[in-house]
Amino acid sequence: MKILALGDIHGQCLNIFEYLQENSADLIVLTGDITQFGPDKLGEDILNEICQFDIPTLAIPGNCDQYCIYGEIENSNAINLHDRTLIIKNIGFCGFGGSNTTPFDTPLEFAEIQIYQEIKKLMKQIESQEIQILVTHAPPYNTKTDLLPSGEHVGSESIRQIIEEFQPSLNICGHIHEARAIDKIGNTIIINPGESSKGFASMINIKDDDKAVIDPKLISL
């Protein structure tokens, strides 16, 4: 399976459309910030434009999406993965959008305890799957994927705790534009594809032969 991971679109999608016209994927995963604080219906329109390429698309909201994004994902042709699970063959997906609290008081922020409790329930639903993929907007704390240029780590401590406890195969995240990177926590691969509005993404190839192998790459659109 080839998964195209996109994060932090912020309403700017032209390079994504151009890429999809010439390249294929088996699945698209959007890690949130589909819009930049709206306006209403923009998220739905963007998702439907991406879905016109007939590639199944999973989406969660980001902290810069308005509350209406929940309904917009539901009303679009994408699959809403926020606070939900999905199983495709031997791969279990679960997702949680928004972010831990920020200094900017953005629309979709959650307390760490809520992040932990909700994702823990989701992980338990997919832990029997051969491959488990956790899709979050916020990156886990203290990794290359949450590192600001100042040297400060600003990711979610709860997401890190979940990864340490459950060791999913992969965590696809976003949120911190400057922290485009691949890292690991134990056996879990962490990937932040970067700001897709600026032409960044990742392609994750899951080779399912005798033993599933996950091969993530950072790409330019």
Largest beta sheet: strand ordering: 4-3-2-1-13-14
* Main sheet makeup: 6 strands, mixed
**What fraction of the residues are assigned to beta strands by DSSP?**
25-35%
Highest-level CATH class: Alpha Beta
User: By helix and strand content, what is the structural category?
Assistant: alpha/beta
Q: Might you state the CATH topology name?
A: Purple Acid Phosphatase, chain A, domain 2
Point out poorly predicted stretches.
none
Average pLDDT: 96
Number of strands: 14
Q: Let me know the CATH homologous superfamily.
A: Metallo-dependent phosphatases
Shape: globular
- Overall structural domain count: 1
Question: What's the tally of helices?
Answer: 5
Query: What is the name of the CATH architecture?
Result: 4-Layer Sandwich
Helix content: 10-25%
Question: Cα distance, first to last residue?
Answer: 19 Å
- Secondary-structure element pattern, one letter each: EHEHEHEEEEEHEHEEEEE
Radius of gyration: 16 Å
Give an overview of the whole structure.
The chain has a single domain, classed as Metallo-dependent phosphatases (Purple Acid Phosphatase, chain A, domain 2, 4-Layer Sandwich). It is built from 5 helices and 14 strands. The protein has helices spanning 14-22, 42-51, 69-75, 112-126, 157-166; strands at residues 2-6, 27-30, 57-59, 79-80, 84-88, 91-96, 99-100, 109-110, 131-136, 170-172, 181-185, 188-192, 200-208, 212-220. Strands 4-3-2-1-13-14 form a 6-stranded mixed beta sheet, covered by helices on one side. The chain has a 6-stranded mixed beta sheet with strand order 5-6-9-10-12-11, with helices on one face. Strand 2, helix 2 and strand 3 form a beta-alpha-beta unit. The longest helix is centred in the middle third of the chain and has 15 residues, at 112-126. It is globular. The model has no long low-confidence stretch (mean pLDDT 96).
